[in-house]
Every structure is written in structure tokens, then in C-alpha cells.
# Entry
Amino acid sequence: MSELKEYPRRDSERSSNSATNDKLKGLEREQLEAGINPLVADLPPDPDAHLSAGERATIDRRLLWKLDLALIPWLCVLYLLSFLDRTNIGNAKIVGLQQSLGSPGHPLSAGAYNAALSIFFVSYSLFEPLTNVLLKRLTPKLFIPIIMVLWGLIMTLMGFVYNWSGLMAARWFLGLAEAGLFPGVNYYLSCWYRRSEFGIRAAIFFSAAAVSGSFGGLLAAAIEKMVGLGGRPGWAWIFILEGILTVLFGFASFWAVQNFPDKATFLSEVDRARVIRRLKMDQQSSAEHEEFKVQYVTAALKDYKMWLGMMIYMGCDMPLYAFSLFLPTIISQMGYTATKAQLLTVPPYACAAVLTITVGYIADRTRQRGLCNIFVSLIGIAGFAILLGSEKPHIKYAGTFLGALGIYPCISNTISWVSNNIEGVYKRGVVLGFVIGWGNLNGIVSSNIYRTGPKFTSGHSTVMVYMIVCLLGGSIAMRTLLARENKKRLTGQRDHWTRGMSHREAEKLGDKRPDFIYTL
# Structure
């Protein structure tokens, strides 16, 4: 029979809440003597306790399928619209945006255009670390639709700007409104799935960004033909129509987006109990309500995994935005017409979407997210080396495929990796906010490195440095440190961290619990 271990504490610790702790430990002893695991004793009764292992597995598969159908497709559409709205300025650029917003005979300079790209990432990054706290407090069913309607309206109004100042203001507020979706949805999904199930879902969700690249090129090629309609140029209609589409989906999201597991209306009471139990059994407290405390922010800031995660994520996120914002320009500089350049952006994105999902599946099955990052990053580094070294258009176009394949899978895989290794409701939300916010702040760099074509030496070189030092180097460092820590935990060298604690007190340590094994 299991035995509840107690260890002596310091007098100051013992005197604090000693009566409550003694009561908790007494309860846990009674539960252990009755054969009940104290870690799950406070959960709803197991509705499948009377079933065989095979029957339970069948019910679990059906439940997972039900969650996937209710959550993933709609969230993918929302992120497709989000990424489309933030990057369609690259499509608008090659169909006359700079000429229209400049003074007569003097189009917007490259510096002015790059400033309009950069300002989005400033507001986006500053607001991002706060968004997961707001998501938790307002609930997903309110927070996500509200920010969607706001950024859709801003996107629509961007089609009516007449000068650089108007474009700058619109891009600032667009970044502010969009900041909550990507970190929010990743945090939200991590509150629904086990750690071994989260990667493929995050990959499918993020593959919408690659699909949006394909869709955006096709859509822009069609919409730009509306030039002159209503007195607006073709590039303006790209913003207007895509913004209206986002507003419509935003209003629909008030009904389509679900709340957290304990409040989700599409689940029966029995299914809700199953979801909460499977999360707890996976050593997650994601299904629990937790009051916000400053100590959760402090714990995040003291965790080396957050800082390494920020380094790794900037190593793939800056290249992501550089690639997405300038791919139409890079291809048009190879000598293709504007319409053909729009269409040629489609295949690299489509291939990236497929590999993103494939890597997500492999990482979930092997639990080797670090190795996936390492090997995939090498593909991207090779792609940008080709872009840097070749002068032949067809070879450079092949390089864009490798670049996309090396960037996109690492985004979702890095988010899954960080999320898997951070436990605690608010701590994980804060960490994901900082990681994603810092990565997006590096979008300022991506907005200012592609200046002189057609070779774009400074742009491709900067992307390669980010991928080699931050993405590849950071992934190697993170995996090495986590493997070393896992070894110490498995050999009992961290057991002293929970001395004198009850099971419930130990559970509050989150990923600092000695029995919490990191995903490598």
C-alpha cells in the first residue's frame, strides 16, 4: 500500500497554516488507506469505472474525436483569417500600394513601407503577454469573437486610407487587436488535450497560416482585378473584402467558440467529467479555476525554459514573417509579373502546411520535439543558403520551398514544446504570452531587412543567422538541459523539493514537481 511521506519543515513554515495542513494530510491518509489516490480524489466520479480497458479506450477515442470536431476546424479558420489580414499588405505592395499612398510622382519609400510593417509588431508584441490573462478572465467565448470583430473592422478601414499616416495608424491598431488570437488559442487548446495530444492539434491549427499564404495569393490575384470599382484601387479591395470576411466570422464566433472544459456547453456532464479526469491524470491543472496572483508571473520570469523558449521562437518567428511579407516581392524580383508572382507563392505554402502537420504527428508520437526542431531547421537553413548563393530564378524558387519547409513546422512545434513543459494555469498562459510576444517583436527585424533586390543579401543572411543561432542552437541547448533535469528527477535527486508537503501542496508546484518529466 502507498504511504504518505512527511518531512520536517522549518519552524516558520510549520507554524503557517499548520492546522489546515494537518487536516489535509489526515484526509490523504484516510484516502490512501481506502485505496484512493489523493491526487484525483477531488474529481468527479469516474463514469467508466465499470467498463473494460477496451471499452474505455473506445469511449476515449470517441471523446477525442468529438473535441476535435468542436474545436479545431473553427479555430483553424480564425487563424487563417488572422494571418491573412496581417500579411496581405505584402500582396497589396506589388499591385500599387506604395504608388497610391505616396505623393504624386513619388511613391512611398522602402523605409516608409517597412515602418508600416514594423509598427504592427510593436503593438502586437506589447499587448500579447497580457492576452492570456484576459482570455482566462473573460472566457474564450467572449474574448476571441470580440477581438476578431475589432481587427476585421480595422482591416476593412485600412482599405480607405489615403496616405502613409493613415496606414501607420491602421497597422498599429491591427496589431493591438490581433495580439490575443495566436497565444490565446494555443493556451486554450493546451487546456483541452493531454501533452502527447497537443502537438498535432497545434500543428493543424498553425498550418492555417501556411494555407492562408496559398489562399492569400490566389485571393489577391482575383481581387486586384477590381481596380477602379467604387473609386478605390485594387490593393484597397484586398483589405476591404478580407476585413469584411473577418467581421462576419467574428460575429459567428459568439456561437461557434467554446468555453474551457468545465463550462463547455457542447459536452454532457459525463463527457465533461471524462475530459477533466484525463487532464488531471496527465498531471495538468488546466481544467481547474485558479485565482490570478503575481507569484505566477514571477515564477514564469524565473524559469529558464521561458527564456530559452523565447530564443528558439524568435529563431523561427522572425524568418516566418520575413518569408510571408516578402515572398511575393522575392518572386516578382525573379522577373515574373505581379499576377504570376501572386500565384507562384501558393505551392511553397501548401508544402509547408503538409510538413507542419506531419512533424506535429511525429513529435506527439515520439515526444522528441527538440530533435524535430533541430532536423527541420536544417532544411530551412539550406533553403536560405540557396536563395543567398544562386542567381538562377528556378533554383531560387526551389529555395523558397525549402525555406518554407524549414520555418513553418518549427513554429507550432516550439509552442507545443514550451507548453508541454510548463504546468500551472496562469504560469503557462504568462509563459506562452512572453514567448510568442517576444518572437513577434522580432517581426520588426523582418520588416526592415529586405531592402535591395533582386539578390536580397542582407535579408537572407539575417534569416540564416536567426535560424542557426537561435532556432538550431536554442533547440540543442533546451533539449540538453531538459534531458539533464529528467535524469536527476528519475534518479531521485529532486525528491527533497517536496519534503514536508502534502500531495495537494506538491501538486501546486506544477512543473517543479519531482515526478513531472519534461518532454524532450
User: Anything to note?
Assistant: The first helix runs from residue 11 to 15. DSSP finds 21 helices and no strands in the chain. The radius of gyration is 25 Å.
